[in-house]
């Protein structure tokens, strides 16, 4: 079955800006747009969608684009979440369409017409309002008028997000009393605790508007520490039967104290290379799935495969990341992530201290992992959570959905919860949306998983 080519997804992006057949950047600080219907979706949208831009760098004219979807429950009291997606300058549509948003692309043979959309019954907007932001500048629809505005890093883009939130809440004062959480996954998990700490510092300093920050959540999160995030692959791959006992023992023998990203020991480099060869035989985001290019959503019903195949990706022309300001009509290609197109400094070397600081301050934290993710295996995440050395409040146990175990969880003092999602991959909601909604809904409602 042929899936929707990536170059056609730009049609959908234009629809989200409520400008049918016209895709353009809005003027600075333009009024937000309410979107009541979308081509490809039958009938009016069953939720309130607002889109808009917020200027975060006046000198260079850099603006971040957002989609704000109100809770389908009680938006007056339900939490507000800002969501930061992972990847290299990936559009936040990755999260909205493939993970936790209320819309999904219909997986069907592509016939050249407008892609069809369907309602996603396990969206997290069932219980929370979500602010999806294209960050950093250059991701999705976010842009800079001066090319120098694209030269950002993890720290500077986090501070731009903080500025974004200050401006956004100023324009949306009705949301200030709602509980607020910072959320994200994969490499976005590096931004989340740092951003949350910066918001908490503003709160302590009395900076207005006073955001009602309650905590944060990270899924399949990177920390910036290579041997934690990726060094755990070796024991994970061994435990899952992908590398042998003999190879595992050789790695343990020759790689003690080595930096797995740059081993100086020749024997260590040799056995790690063999381990990587075996790892490359499987699908990294979900070890049970077919090995395809990591470019489209995971199937939830088994009817489609997770793929934009290499022959399809090979024909893409990869347009420049800074479209002209006068762009009109549909682009012939949209790229989900701009990998290495633009400068981006990886200057958050480790997030663990921010996790420690935030939880010690009493903010709530949920850390979760798909247990079939080999990109950032749960073993590494579990290890750094343990390294915080908080006393255990609720011992390791199964959590359940419909009378069956849906994963396993442990709760520590200082409102820190770690959970696995059974059969979840990278990222967990792509593969197990029902379980992830149940987990999130319980946690955000202060219920036990």
TrEMBL record:
UniProt keyword Metal-binding, yes or no: no
Database matches in PROSITE patterns: CARBOXYPEPT_SER_HIS
Pfam families xrefs: Peptidase_S10 (PF00450)
Keyword terms, alphabetized: Carboxypeptidase, Disulfide bond, Glycoprotein, Hydrolase, Protease, Signal, Zymogen
Superkingdom of origin: Eukaryota
Catalysed reaction, written as an equation: Preferential release of a C-terminal arginine or lysine residue
Signal peptide: 1-20
EC number(s) on file: 3.4.16.6
InterPro entries membership: AB_hydrolase_fold, Peptidase_S10, Ser_caboxypep_his_AS
Gene3D superfamilies: 3.40.50.12670, alpha/beta hydrolase
Gene Ontology MF annotations: serine-type carboxypeptidase activity
GO biological process: proteolysis
EC class name: hydrolase
Subunit note: Carboxypeptidase II is a dimer, where each monomer is composed of two chains linked by a disulfide bond.
Stated family: Belongs to the peptidase S10 family.
Name the record gives this protein: carboxypeptidase D
């Amino acid at each position: 079955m042929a899936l929707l080519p990536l170059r056609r997804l730009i049609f959908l992006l234009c629809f989200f800006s409520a400008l049918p057949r016209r895709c353009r950047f809005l003027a600075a600080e333009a009024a937000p747009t309410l979107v009541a219907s979308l081509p490809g979706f039958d009938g009016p949208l069953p939720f309130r969608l607002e889109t808009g831009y917020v200027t975060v760098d006046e000198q260079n004219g850099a603006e971040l684009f957002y989609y704000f979807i109100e809770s389908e429950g009680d938006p007056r009291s339900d939490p507000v979440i800002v969501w930061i997606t992972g990847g290299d300058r990936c559009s936040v549509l990755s999260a909205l369409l493939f993970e936790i948003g209320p819309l999904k692309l219909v997986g069907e043979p592509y016939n050249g017409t407008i892609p069809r959309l369907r309602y996603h019954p396990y969206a997290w907007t069932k219980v929370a309002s979500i602010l999806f932001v294209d960050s950093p500048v250059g991701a999705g629809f976010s842009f800079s008028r001066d090319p120098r505005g694209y030269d950002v890093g993890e720290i500077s883009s986090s501070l731009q997000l903080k500025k974004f939130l200050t401006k956004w809440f100023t324009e949306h004062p009705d949301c200030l009393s709602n509980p607020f959480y910072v959320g994200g996954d994969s490499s976005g998990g590096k931004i989340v605790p740092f951003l949350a700490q910066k918001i908490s510092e503003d709160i302590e300093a009395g900076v207005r508007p006073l955001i009602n920050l309650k905590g944060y959540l990270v899924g399949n999160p990177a920390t910036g520490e290579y041997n934690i995030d990726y060094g755990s692959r070796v024991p994970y791959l061994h435990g899952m039967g992908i590398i042998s006992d003999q190879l595992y023992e050789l790695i343990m023998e020759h790689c003690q104290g080595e930096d797995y990203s740059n081993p100086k020991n020749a024997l260590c480099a040799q056995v790690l290379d063999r381990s990587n060869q075996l790892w490359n035989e499987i699908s990294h985001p979900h070890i049970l799935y077919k090995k395809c290019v990591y470019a489209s959503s995971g199937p939830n019903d088994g009817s489609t495969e997770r793929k934009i195949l290499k022959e399809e990706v090979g024909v893409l022309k990869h347009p420049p990341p800074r479209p002209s300001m006068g762009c009109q009509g549909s682009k012939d290609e949209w790229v989900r992530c701009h990998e290495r197109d633009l400068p981006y400094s990886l200057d958050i070397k480790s997030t663990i201290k921010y996790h420690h600081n935030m939880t010690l301050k009493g903010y709530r934290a949920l850390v979760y992992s798909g247990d079939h993710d080999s990109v950032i295996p749960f073993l590494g995440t579990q290890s750094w959570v343990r390294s915080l050395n908080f006393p255990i409040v609720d011992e390791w146990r199964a959590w359940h959905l419909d009378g069956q175990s849906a994963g396993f969880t442990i709760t520590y003092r200082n409102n820190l919860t770690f959970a696995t999602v059974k059969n979840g991959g990278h990222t967990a909601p792509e593969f197990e949306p029902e379980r992830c909604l149940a987990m999130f809904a319980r946690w955000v409602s202060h219920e036990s998983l």
